[in-house]
Write a structure and sequence with these properties.
The complex is a heterodimer. Chain A folds into two domains: 222 residues, HUPs (Rossmann fold, 3-Layer(aba) Sandwich), CATH 3.40.50; 38 residues, no CATH class. Helices cover 30% and strands 25% of the residues of chain A. Chain A contains seven helices and 13 strands. Chain A has a nine-stranded mixed β-sheet, with helices on both faces. In chain A, helix 2 links the parallel strand 6 and strand 7. In chain A, helix 3 packs across helix 4. Chain A is globular, with a radius of gyration of 24 Å. In chain B, 39% of the residues lie in helices and 26% in strands. In chain B, strands 1, 2, 7, 8, 9, 10, 16 and 17 form an eight-stranded mixed β-sheet that branches. In chain B, strand 4 and strand 5 form a beta hairpin. Chain B is globular and about 85 Å long. Classes of the chains: A alpha/beta, B alpha/beta.
Chain lengths: 282, 435
């Protein structure tokens, strides 16, 4: 049977995030935790493949014990198993150390449930925004990496071939690749499903599998947590809010006011910046 | 349809539903607790006072672990005129231990309470709307939700889906509320430094105080409140919907007027508004209580209009009614009969409880408010009281006897002009509160 692994991260809901003006760090307290938005699109694509071809879907995450809630959400949508890798020793990891642990986790999942065919990740997380963990995992597991995927065109199991559309800055790239692959998902990929009632019931009773450092005998401790993270945050700052003076433009009639507004806009630096051409008006 | 069958389904994870779910789960029943919000408390609001006693019947010492704001040691009552106030209050060191009540925030309290029900074994089904009831003739045999394969069966369904009870309407146990049966309450949470709150309200540590406010509600039947939380204030006002309709005033305008009052402006000064919310409060009282049970169902909390508007108690009645419904379900489970006749034990228990007695005592308040001139009760009288107090305390050479006469005349005029009007209103009020 196909084995699909979905990597997810529990992140603070960025719609409700605030920044501490004194320390310039995110205030996480009181901010609801959600499954990283893009990861859900990865999960949905895995579930669609499961619906069509039959597959085992394993969801993995690294995080604090409270991240089990994120896994339960994935279970409610239809994932078969959820694994939480959680240990204080993993804390403080940057993308390098994280991709190492996630790769180790996927290897262990392969030992238990068979070799992996497709790994799904979100294109990036809402809180880190780096987009590095997916490619990092692909490298470590020697998987073809298909980043920024907006469409899975076809999956041919006999030939073990997948065709996807990658959305790049200057166009769309249609790529054919041989399994196993790693896909990082864009929001355009699909619309994540709402869990069914039986799914919610299963999730309510489900206890995710928890692995600590003890579950990884081959773990290289110099590569995990803060010690395995060469990234240094030298400075963080909050951009100063820009003061903008509002100008009210009036005129005797609506027509006159509109004319005055157009004249004023053409005088402003905006016109040059946007390449407006005078004379188009009449 | 889900393959699983439950002993009981509870619709709504507010105080009533959660109390029912907790009671039944603890007794070993297989319970599903369904909530439409993302999590319990996400969609709920109340003024902000939680009492010790009723929840203690369910979870002894609950307040030592529940997330609460401040322990109330002082309760104040302010009667406001435009730029003045007559104040009453009671502060007592005996409220320190054991405490009587606390301020709380539902967004913190409800998840904690529902967590207790989950720990007891209730299965949480959140972000799920119950859109209808599964029926077999008169009997309710489960619920229909908005999820795929969304039907769920159980022996008994406990309806605790709040003031606008969708299911209560489907059962035809209540119609759409009349505008004079519900209040619309609006509330703001205003953030201030902890120490500032303590200084302004004369508090120490985790002590808190509540202020109930009469008057200055744009001449409508309603009450205002200002409660101290740990580092926020809850300020709000509830006004009868029929009055809002009649006067064409928007609820937030009433709240804004209250916030501008000189007595209140100084207490909230410099604070940042963190939250704005609005909610309906059922205030029909005793005469609006629907049938409480039938074949395979019971109804409790706001959905059953169990709110004591006079004493600002709602959560209390919700928790107790939920517990009593849960207990009736346990009895029904033991005898294996969920008919209206067995579940009538719930109705009996409500009648024997403080809920029924308290609501009965105030059963005429609602008609008093609905029939009397609310402008007079909630505007003219508070003004007259303030004027009278001003006159009495002003030293200006006028003999005290004359002052007293003038003060009484003011109150009399506010009541309608004659001594009889003042007496009639007083008697009516007394009967309404004690009938």
């Amino acid at each position: 049977m196909l084995h699909l692994v979905v990597c997810i991260k529990q992140v603070p809901d960025s719609r409700e995030i605030r920044i501490d003006p004194k320390t310039n760090t995110l205030i996480r307290q009181g901010v609801p935790a959600i499954v990283n938005y893009y990861d859900l699109h990865g999960l949905e694509e895995a579930l669609r493949i499961k619906d069509r071809f039959g597959a085992r879907v394993t969801v993995v995450t690294m995080g604090p014990p409270s991240a089990d809630k994120a896994l339960k959400q994935c279970i409610s949508m239809g994932a078969d198993e959820g694994v939480l890798v959680s240990d204080r020793a993993f804390a403080g990891a940057d993308t390098l150390a994280t991709s190492y642990v996630v790769a180790m986790t996927i290897r262990k999942a392969e030992e238990l449930w068979g070799p992996v065919d497709i790994v799904f990740c979100g294109k990036q997380t809402l809180d880190g925004d780096t987009g590095q963990v997916g490619p990092g995992v692909a490298c470590r597991l020697d998987l073809e990496q298909l980043t920024y995927v907006e469409k899975v065109e076809s999956l041919n199991l006999e030939r073990r071939e997948i065709i996807v559309h990658r959305h790049l800055e200057d166009g769309v790239e249609r790529v054919r690749a041989r399994l196993p692959v790693l896909i990082t998902a864009l929001a355009e990929l699909n619309e994540p499903r709402r869990a069914s009632l039986p799914g919610v019931l299963r999730a309510a009773r489900y206890r995710p599998i928890v692995w600590t450092t003890n579950d990884f005998p081959d773990l290289d401790r110099s590569k995990i947590g803060l010690r395995g993270s060469p990234t240094i945050v030298s400075k963080t700052w909050v951009p100063e809010p820009r003061a903008i003076t509002t100008e009210y433009i009036s005129g005797d009639t609506l027509q006159a006011a509109a004319e005055a507004l157009v004249d004023r806009l053409f005088e402003s630096p905006l016109a040059e910046k946007l390449g407006w051409v005078q004379g188009v008006r009449s | 349809m889900a393959d699983e069958r439950f002993d009981a389904i509870v619709v709504g994870a507010g105080p009533a539903g959660t109390a029912a779910a907790y009671t039944m789960a603890r007794a070993g029943l297989k319970v599903a607790l369904i909530e439409r919000g993302e999590f319990p408390g996400a969609k709920n609001i109340f003024g902000g006072v939680l009492y010790r006693k009723q929840l203690e019947d369910l979870i002894p010492g609950w307040w030592k672990e529940a997330p609460l704001e401040r322990k109330i040691v002082e309760q104040r009552l302010w009667v406001l005129a435009e730029d003045s106030a007559v104040t009453f209050g009671h502060r007592n060191q005996r409220y320190e231990d054991p405490p009587n009540c606390w301020t709380g925030l539902r967004v913190k309290f409800d998840p904690w309470f529902a967590g207790k029900a989950e720990q007891a074994g209730a299965v949480p089904i959140y972000e799920t709307v119950v859109t209808g009831l599964l029926r077999a003739g008169e009997r309710v045999r489960g619920v229909i939700t908005d999820r795929d394969d969304g039907e769920l069966e159980a022996n008994v369904t406990i309806i605790a889906d709040g003031v606008n009870s969708l299911l209560g309407k489907q059962l035809m146990v209540h119609r759409e509320w009349r505008p004079d049966e519900v209040s619309l309450a609006v509330k703001e949470i205003i953030q201030l430094p902890r120490q500032t709150i303590q200084d302004r309200f004369n508090l120490e540590g985790d002590e808190g105080c509540t202020i109930e406010i009469i008057g200055n509600t744009c001449g409508m039947a309603g009450l205002g409140f200002l409660y101290t939380n740990t580092d926020t204030l809850s300020i709000g006002v509830g006004v009868m919907v029929s009055d809002l309709k009649k006067k064409r005033i928007k609820p937030y305008e009433v709240l804004d007027a209250l916030k501008r009052h000189p007595m209140i402006a100084r207490l909230i000064q410099g604070g940042e508004v963190k939250e704005y919310s609005g909610h309906l409060i059922p205030e029909g009282g005793f005469n609006s209580i629907p049938a409480l049970c039938g074949d395979g169902w019971m109804i409790c909390g706001d959905a059953a209009q169990l709110v004591n508007a006079v004493h600002r108690e709602g959560t209390n009645l919700a928790i107790t009614s939920g517990r009593l419904a849960g207990e009736a379900a346990i009895q029904a489970h033991q005898v294996g009969d969920f008919s209206a006749r067995t579940l009538a034990a719930y109705d009996d228990a409500i009648r024997a409880s403080f809920i029924y007695k308290d609501l009965k005592k105030y059963r005429h308040v609602h008609s008093l408010l609905a029939n009397e001139d609310t402008q007079q009760l909630f505007d003219a009288l508070p003004r007259a009281l303030n004027e009278a107090a001003y006159e009495m305390l002003l030293v200006d050479g006028v003999p005290k006897r004359d002052k007293q006469r003038k003060a009484i005349r003011r109150l009399k005029e506010a009541a309608g002009g004659a001594y009889m009007d003042l007496i009639r209103l007083g008697l009516k009020g007394w009967r309404a509160m004690n009938g």
